[in-house]
Amino acid sequence: MAQFDVHAYQGRQRDDVAFVVLVQSALFDAYRRRVVVPLVRRDALRAGMSTIGSRLNPVFRVEGIDVVLHPLDMVSMDIAALGAKVGSLAEQGQAISDALDELLTRGWG
Question: Are the CB atoms for 25 and 99 separated by under 8 Å?
Fold first, then answer.
């Protein structure tokens, strides 16, 4: 498993959350868990959601589906719970890192 690998989502919300993207550094590969961020189907989000396409919520296309990175729902999952690897967003890794930076370090207040 590599950082920015995309896996099929197997959980209860799979109608809305198509995939998850692995964001954890390879430094922690010895652990049995991985930190992932949901990739929510764009059409499952409210039409007026103003942050779609923003630095916090970039849009990607995975297996022909438009998905939105949703870092506010970031979780740690057991490796066994990850679905099959379906691709990688390594080429968009900077946009993913920027979204996490926005979430974690850009708070003013």
Answer: no
Encode pLDDT of 53-74 as tens digits.
788 999 999 999 999 999 999 9
Identify the segments of the chain with pLDDT beneath 50: none
- The secondary structure element, H or E, covering residue 103 is helix 93-105
CA 52 – CA 100 distance, rounded (Å):
15
- Reading the block at residue 55, the tokens are 């630095």
Contacts of residues 43-50 at CB distance under 8 Å and 24 or more positions apart, as own/partner, are 44/15, 44/16
Cα 80 to the chain's mean position, in Å?
Answer: 18
- Cα separation, 92 vs 3, in Å, equals 11
